[in-house]
Design brief:
The structure is a single chain. With about 150 residues, this protein is an alpha+beta fold. The chain has a single domain, classed as Tetrahydropterin Synthase, Chain A (2-Layer Sandwich), CATH 3.30.479. It has three helices and six strands; from the N terminus they run E-E-H-E-H-E-H-E-E. Helix 2 links the parallel strand 3 and strand 4.
Length: about 150
Amino acid sequence: MMPNRIRRWVETDTGHRVPNHSSKCRHMHGHRYRWEAELEGDVVTKRGVSEEGMLIDFSEVSEILNTHIHDVVDHAFLVFEDDEVALDALRMMETGHRTVILPFIPTAENLAKWAFEQVEPHISSSYGNSLILRAFHVRETPKSWASWYDE
C-alpha cells in the first residue's frame, strides 16, 4: 500500500468547442483550465538525498506538467479531428496560430484521460519509492472538474 499522495497543477488559457453539444458549448470558446496531477508512492527514506521525506520534488512535477501540458495547450485551440467547421475556421487564422488537433472531442473528461497519458510516462523515481501517477484532474470552470484514474 502506498499511503502518500501529492498533487501539483498548472493552468492554461485554452479554447475548444464540443461540436455535437445541444447547448452553448458547441460554440468556440475558452477556459482557464487547471491541469492537476495526483501522484502516489512511498516517501523517500534514503538519507542525505534532496528528496528525503518526499515522494518527488514538486519542481520536478512542475517541469513535467509545463513541458507536456502547459507548453502544448496554453493559448491554443483544441479541436476534434472530425470537426470540419472548426478546422475550416482555424485554417483562416494567421500562420503560427496554435491549434492542437485531437482524435477525440475535447471535453473535460476526454482531456483528463489525454493529460494522464501525456504525463504518466514521465513520472519516475530513482529511489524505489513506487511512485505512480494515480489520477489526473482537469478543471474546466471553478464548478466543473473531470478526472481520469489509473485503476
